[in-house]
Design goal:
Strand order of the largest sheet: 1-9-8-5-4-2-3
Bound molecules: pyridoxal-5'-phosphate
Radius of gyration: 23 Å
Number of helices: 13
CATH class of the largest domain: Alpha Beta
Order of helices and strands: HHEHEHEHEHEEEEEHHHEEHEHHEH
Largest sheet: 7 strands, mixed
CATH superfamily of the largest domain: Type I PLP-dependent aspartate aminotransferase-like (Major domain)
Length: 451
């Protein structure tokens, strides 16, 4: 097996896959699988943690100083240092470490002064945490269609704009940049803040600018399978001094502790008119994250290398539609998501799993995938799944066609070759097994029912 640091990422010639040879019989039908070792995913423990990261966390444990707001000045705490380092990494004025990505999102909405009860627009393809954070902030999700590349569809948002929308919450889902530049312009035009759920895209860039820095605030998670991982946790970044002060106060900086975040002057508010929600980060996790942050650029390079390698090797494959980035390289590369527009994506994903590659059909009926909007039952007035799917017919169609393969940064190029072989093998067999199915319903064929 080749090591992670092996470059270059040019596609290598692979043996042709023909389904008339015994070795090309699908594992689903008793053939030999492409690989027999487990597909590396973060969930199974293949995280990017090194001994020096463990040492940093142990140092924090041994210090017995676990609370970020003890007697030490801000710049001597792990949390304070982590926030300074985040500001340098993202090029923002402010950063706040908090208890989760969901907390960072909810804080961003509240701190941006979105009035409680407002609608907050978010895409129909995201993790359930996005609409949950909107609810946590006292607002209501307003779901928007995604386009064929599974990005928030700005034309749909414009078409169905509702004056009760108080913010746009864009998501860079599965690491792919949404068109954050266009959305930032649109948000300005409509007079509402743009907030970025950049949780799935930590470190990825769009046209040389880090995702999470295009709107009023960007939210990130440091939970288990993120580019920085301490089990739980998150942070937000912003250039807005007042938004930052409100987020700090809401997160739990009481009795003057807000001042520690403004070493160059007085904070713009006392925080006494805000509730204290206790969504702080602790010193042990911050120490671990600081150590991981030093190797983040290398991890980002590996994500990019692997994704670019796989996408290039499968670009010519008929029958699958690979997501196209909004600008060259505008993705993290933590997942390989493609659609099977005229086949059966559920069957395709099952066949890939049997070949030894983790794969999931996002819109499968038999899977309670919380990235599919119809599984966010708390959002709707109805339990009728057909009625819910009809609210975003194009998104429902695209998610039914979508296959999701995790691309851990610890994949080697040999692992990537296995993925390419498996997708080619399954695609070669697909037309015979699954002739063309019905196309998705056209956009706007049903009136949306939203709370
Ligand atoms: C798109 C998205 N937003 C928000 C979150 C929430 O992050 P956390 O689990 O840290 O609350 C996640 C978690 O995976 C996510 O995928």
């Amino acid at each position: 097996m080749k090591g992670n640091d092996e470059a270059p990422a040019q596609p290598r010639p692979l043996p042709a896959t023909r389904h008339d040879r015994p070795e090309d019989r699908l594992a689903l039908h008793g053939g030999a699988p492409v690989r027999r070792t487990p597909w590396p995913t973060y969930d199974k423990g293949a995280v990017f943690v090194h001994p020096e990261d463990e040492e940093a966390a142990c140092r924090a444990v041994r210090s017995h100083l676990y609370f970020r707001y003890d007697h030490r000045p801000q710049h001597e705490t792990e949390c304070g240092r982590f926030e300074d380092e985040l500001c340098r990494f993202f090029g923002t004025r402010h950063a706040l470490a908090v208890s989760s990505g969901t907390a960072a999102l909810a804080l961003a909405i509240m701190a941006a002064r979105v009035p409680p009860g407002s609608l907050v627009a978010c895409p129909g393809f995201t993790f359930v945490a996005t609409p949950s954070a909107i609810v946590m902030a006292g607002c209501r999700p307003f779901l928007v269609e995604v386009d064929q590349d599974l990005r928030m569809d700005i034309d749909d948002l414009r078409r169905r704009w509702d004056p009760r929308i108080g913010a746009i919450l864009v998501v860079h889902m599965r690491g792919f940049a949404a068109d954050a530049e266009a959305l930032a312009r649109f948000a300005t035009e409509m007079g509402v803040p743009l907030i970025e759920d950049a949780v799935p895209a930590l470190g990825a860039e769009l046209n040389g600018r880090k995702l999470g820095t295009f709107g009023a605030a960007g939210a990130f998670s440091t939970q288990s399978d993120k580019a920085l991982n301490c089990g739980e946790g998150g942070f937000l970044v912003t250039d807005d001094r007042e938004l930052f002060a409100r987020a700090v106060a809401l997160s739990g900086a009481y009795e003057g502790r807000l001042r520690r975040h403004f070493p160059d002057g007085e904070p713009p508010l006392t925080g006494l008119d805000l509730p204290l929600l206790s969504l702080r980060m602790d010193e042990i996790r911050a120490a671990l994250l600081r150590a991981e942050l030093t190797r983040l650029p290398e991890r980002l390079r590996l994500f990019h290398r692997n994704y670019g390698y796989v996408a290039a090797a499968l670009a010519d494959l008929p029958g699958i539609a690979i997501r196209q980035p909004v600008a060259p390289g505008a993705y993290l590369g933590e997942a390989f998501v493609f659609r099977v527009p005229s086949g059966d994506a559920g069957w395709f994903a099952r066949a890939l799993c049997r070949e030894g590659v983790d794969a999931r059909n996002i819109g499968a009926d038999d899977d309670l995938n919380v990235r599919a909007f119809w599984n966010w039952r708390f959002v709707y007035d109805t339990d009728d799944l057909d009625e819910i799917r009809a609210m975003l017919p194009r998104t429902a169609g695209y998610l039914r066609e979508a296959v999701d393969v995790p691309l851990s940064s610890n994949l080697t190029l040999d692992d990537c070759d296995d993925l390419v072989r498996a997708v080619r093998k399954v695609a070669a067999a697909a037309p015979a097994e699954h002739p063309v199915t019905a196309a998705p319903a056209p956009a706007g064929s049903a009136e949306p029912v939203r709370r």
